[in-house]
Amino acid sequence: MRKRIHILAMGGTIAGSAGDSAATTGYQAGAMGIEELLAAVPQVRELAEITGEQLAAIDSKDITAAQQLQLAARVRELLLSGEVDGIVITHGTDTLEESAYLLDLLHFADIPVVITGAMRPATALSADGPLNILDAVRVAAADEARDRGVLVVLNNTIHSAQLVTKMSATAVETFQSPNGGAIGAVNDGEVCFYQSAQLHHLPNALSVSEKLTSQKELPYVPILYGHSDDDGRLVKLVRENGAQGIVYAGMGNGSIPERAEKELAAAVQAGIPVIRSSTSVSGMVVKAEESYEQAGFIASGLLNPRKARLLLQAAVVCGKGTADLRNFLR
Ligand code: ASP
């Protein structure tokens, strides 16, 4: 039986249009609709029964929590419908890893969800989008991709949502998983997995996804970027502005300058959970100073600050606290 693959188009460079085919910047992201995108890769229809819809046509740097939740709600609906064997999402690369991670947190089925994008606009010479779409459909239709959560497929490689990050501001091979590497590849059309997936589904993801996708927005959880001489005034500022959680992107193993640490400890005392993550792109954030433990900070493990933020937002919505988060991140 031919697999039924549903494509959700969100915009991004993969749907970008520039006046000049030599241009890879200065284009309009999200300018092309799903039909135009698919017209560039007629081969997808040989691989599977393809349906699709345009959910958004945005530059993904502008994605709002409401749009992320709308995407998650549509994915949930499709997974529950019994009408699809795989889902492909075309998305801008700037926040691709965030949407992928949010969807992975909420994933509850063995049906593959594959996110792809492109670094060159659709109108560029050597545009990378069409092959990325073809590979994403191949992966979404592959039996081997079942039970591997949400996957990110670009540039012939397959990554787990938890570990993948946009490493380069400009290179086509930008998506990499610095902790652990890619989990597979698409070689000349052949889908091959050589590592197990790093699944990061929340416990009870089916009911959590129902709860989260019924929200109109997510709690205000800012990320503060650590640097020398941080005196903690931004911690005070975000508290005054109603932060319900804080992610501190510390240095190295989530190190926090003393004055900022004092303010963050006061935030925890006031019931605002704090995750320590890192500005370093690889390595785990684990226990460090004893004072961090005493203050009740949560180490982000393998999560970069942007993914830790989404996890904390989900935890706040679900009324989960420090102990639950520590358990989940262990
Ligand atoms: N700014 C674009 C976006 O995220 C970049 C891209 O898609 O590569 O939508």
pLDDT averaged over residues: 96
Major β-sheet annotation:
8 strands, mixed
Instruction: List how many beta strands DSSP finds.
Output: 14
**What is the molecular shape?**
globular
**Under the CATH scheme, which architecture of the largest domain would be assigned?**
3-Layer(aba) Sandwich
The number of helical segments is 11
The hetero compounds bound to this protein are: aspartic acid
**Percent range of helical residues:** 25-40%
* Percentage of β-strand residues: 15-25%
Q: Which fold name corresponds to the CATH topology of the largest domain?
A: Rossmann fold
Strand order, main sheet: write it out: 2-1-3-4-5-6-9-10
Order of helix and strand elements from N to C terminus: EHHEHEHEHEEEEEEHEHEHEHEHH
**For the record, what is the CATH homologous superfamily label of the largest domain?**
L-asparaginase, N-terminal domain
Q: Structural class of the helices, strands and pairings? A: alpha/beta
Domain tally? 2
Termini, distance in Å? 41 Å
Q: Measured on Cα atoms, how large is the radius of gyration?
A: 20 Å
CATH first level of the largest domain: Alpha Beta
Instruction: Please mark out the parts with pLDDT under 50 across 5 or more consecutive residues, or reply none.
Output: none
Describe what this molecule looks like in 3D.
This protein is 32% helix and 19% strand. Helix 4 runs parallel beside helix 10 and helix 7 packs parallel to helix 8. It is globular and about 60 Å long. The chain has eleven helices and 14 strands. The chain starts with a strand and ends with a helix. The longest helix has 17 residues. The chain has two domains: 190 residues, L-asparaginase, N-terminal domain (Rossmann fold); 110 residues, Rossmann fold, CATH 3.40.50. The protein binds aspartic acid. The site of aspartic acid has 11 residues, from loops. It holds the Pfam family Asparaginase_C.
